Each structure stands twice: as structure tokens, then as C-alpha cells.
Amino acid sequence: MKxxxxxxxxxxxxxxxxxxxxxxxxxxxxxxxxxxSLPNLAKFCxxxxxxxxxxxxxxxxxxxxxLFSYPFIHMTGHGNVVFSDNxxxxxxxxxxxxxxxxxDDNYGMDKFIRKELKKVFPNNxxxxxxxxxxxxxxxxxxxQGMPKIHEHDNKPPQAWGIFVEGRLVLLYTxxxxxxxxxxxxxxxxxxxxxxxxxxxxxxNILNYAFNN
Length: 212
Fold this sequence. Notes:
The chain is 34% helix and 17% strand. It is α/β, with parallel strands linked by helices. It has one domain (2-211): Domain of unknown function DUF4159 (Rossmann fold, 3-Layer(aba) Sandwich), CATH 3.40.50. Helix 2 packs across helix 7 (192-211).
């Protein structure tokens, strides 16, 4: 499976039709939140860093074999998250086979997602991603680390990760709300510079996922 996923990521022919997807999960949380986020991020990346991403974002269930068709999966929500044993095993296999998951707390997800991620990686701790990590270096520079997009609890933006054999396979962003910054401008009425900052950080995440 690892070899097959890497072929998808690296084959020049398939790069003409890269797809990214939103993760659908159980538990009652609004996995479908921020519907314009990924299409806008895809458009930004295609324009600014010359990717070729399908701007019609797919949806994939966490326990589905279709998960392995996407090099990058985005997960968001405000509430409860529940992974079955099959979900956890499928997601673990996906991530250790070259896939990448970005979990973005839309506010209210934190206490649920941390528990469920322990099912996926019982022996791997979430650790803070250092500001020296390459995900902050390009194509856009973020020397101070994760940007702050929306205020939640008056806490600094945080980036947590799970590393497997030195590779960041899962990025969990909290107290930043990147996905809100990717949405259509009229949804949250964020200033242009705030939205641009969110999109640039998103481009860095996608760039890392596609190339590592």
C-alpha cells in the first residue's frame, strides 16, 4: 500500500489531477463545516505555488478504502468525534503509507479529537511542532510559527503533530482556525491580510504533504 500511495503522489501524469478531500467522521461533530475552505485553498495554491489541484473538493469517510486515493485529507468541526476500531486502523495505515491528515479545530473539537487520535496512534504522542520545522519555511516563511486567524480562548495558536520515522504525518492546529481564514471573504469578514496569511500557511501544509 505504501508503494501505491507514493506512486499517486509522485507520478507526473497523475499530478495533472491531484485531489484533496474532507474527512467525514462519526460522533455528531460538524465534519462538513467550512464548505468553501478547501476549494479556496486549492485555487490559491494553483495560482501561487503552481499546483494542479481539483477545486471540487471530495468527501471521504475515515474507514473507507478510498482514503488512499488522496495525498491530503482535511478534518474540521466544532464537536464530538468518534473513530471505530476499523476507522482507527484504516487511518493509521493511510498515514503510515504516505498520506497526510490536517486536523483543524474549528472550536470545540479539542477534548474529543485528542482521545480519538490515541486510538489511531496509541504509542505516538502528539508533540508540538517546532517553529524550526520545514512546514514553516516554504513556500511562504512563518518564522514565528503558526499564525493566529480567529480568537477563541485568548490563547496562542498551536500546532501539534504526530511523527512517524521522522516524518510529520498528522498536523493538528488549534487556537488558530486556519479553515475559517480559507473560507469565502463574506463568511467571516476577515481582513484581506488575515485571509492571505491563512491561505499561505495552508499552502505550506499542502506543499509539505505533497513532497514528504
